[in-house]
């Protein structure tokens, strides 16, 4: 059966309004995803990011092995930029080596900083994996004590002090919130805001440039498992089916 589409659906005014609303939401979600910084964490799944365990605060551990001093410092990080910032802050140019590794979801990097290849950065990274934490960076600073440790000794030293540092750190469980957007008529802003607060959403932003009279775009972050309940609750409260935009 042929379906006849009304010609006004393809009018320049309607198409322009739809495009502006979609563009407005994309810009708001981009800002939310960046977290106010130049680069944000890339989620493994845009709509269903996995919860993870990370460090609640920085931790430090010091060991002396054959007269060499090893100092491991671990810290939670949010993205690659914060990892480099942490490294710049705590590395010691007077030390013999500043070796490090970090893990941000599926992304990771490690550096031997002059130690034989694979004897420092990789063991630190494997310590992060073994400890079960994510969004974490560990820097191990070494002051050479005059006795060479050999390949196996270096691997055990760097990996061991990194793992000891992480095991002694205070951890926390994080359930990432996902960005959501919705168009809301002005007269419904009150009840919608009330429900958003009751669901403990974060980073609420409002944009009036939707191209529609009397309508604003709200963007916010909410726990993934609460999305469906929030949609149903708001639609019930407003006595109409509200449209939600997901990244």
Structural commentary:
The chain has 247 residues and is α+β, with helices and mostly antiparallel strands. It folds into 2 domains: 100 residues, Alpha-Beta Plaits (2-Layer Sandwich), CATH 3.30.70.240; 122 residues, Ribosomal Protein S5, domain 2, CATH 3.30.230. Helices cover 34% and strands 29% of the residues. The strands form 3 sheets. Strands 2-3-6-4-5 form a 5-stranded antiparallel β-sheet, sandwiched between helices. A 4-stranded antiparallel β-sheet has the order 9-10-8-11, covered by helices on one side. A two-stranded antiparallel ribbon has the order 1-7. Strand 9 and strand 10 form a beta hairpin. Helix 3 runs parallel beside helix 4. The two termini are 34 Å apart.
What coarse outline follows from CA principal-axis ratios? elongated
Major pleated sheet = 5 strands, antiparallel
Under CATH, the topology of the largest domain can be stated as: Ribosomal Protein S5, domain 2
How many helices does DSSP assign? 6
Task: Decide which structural class fits the backbone.
Answer: alpha+beta
Radius of gyration: 25 Å
Low-confidence stretches: 1-48
Q: What is the CATH architecture annotation of the largest domain?
A: 2-Layer Sandwich
**Helix-strand sequence:** HEEEHEEHEHEEHEEHE
**How many beta-strand elements?**
11
Approximately how much helix is present in the residues? Answer: 25-40%
Summed up, the domain count is: 2
Mean pLDDT across residues = 83
CATH class of the largest domain: Alpha Beta
Adjacency order of strands in the biggest sheet: 2-3-6-4-5
First-to-last CA distance: 34 Å
Oligomer: single chain
- The portion of residues forming beta strands comes to 25-35%
CATH superfamily of the largest domain: Impact, N-terminal domain
């Amino acid at each position: 059966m042929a379906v006849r589409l009304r010609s006004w659906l393809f009018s320049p005014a309607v198409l322009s309004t739809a495009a502006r609303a979609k563009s407005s939401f994309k810009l708001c979600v981009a800002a939310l995803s960046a977290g106010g910084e130049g680069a944000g964490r890339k989620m493994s799944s845009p709509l269903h990011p996995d919860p993870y365990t990370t460090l609640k605060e920085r931790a430090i551990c010091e060991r002396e092995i054959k007269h060499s001093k090893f100092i491991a410092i671990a810290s939670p990080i949010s993205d690659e930029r914060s990892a480099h910032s942490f490294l710049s802050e705590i590395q010691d140019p007077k030390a013999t080596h500043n070796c490090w590794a970090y893990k941000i979801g599926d992304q990771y990097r490690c550096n031997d900083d002059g130690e034989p290849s694979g004897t420092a950065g990789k063991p630190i990274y494997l310590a992060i994996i073994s400890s079960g934490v994510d969004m974490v960076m560990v820097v191990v600073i070494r002051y050479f004590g005059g006795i060479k440790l050999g390949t196996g000794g270096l691997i055990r030293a760097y990996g061991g002090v990194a793992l000891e540092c992480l095991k002694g750190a205070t951890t926390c469980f994080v359930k990432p919130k996902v960005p959501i957007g919705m168009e809301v008529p002005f007269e419904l802003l009150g009840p919608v805001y009330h429900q958003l607060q009751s669901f403990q959403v974060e980073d609420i932003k409002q944009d009036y440039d939707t191209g529609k009279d009397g309508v604003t775009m709200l963007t916010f972050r909410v726990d993934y498992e609460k999305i469906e309940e929030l949609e149903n609750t708001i639609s019930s409260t407003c006595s109409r089916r509200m449209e939600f935009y997901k990244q």
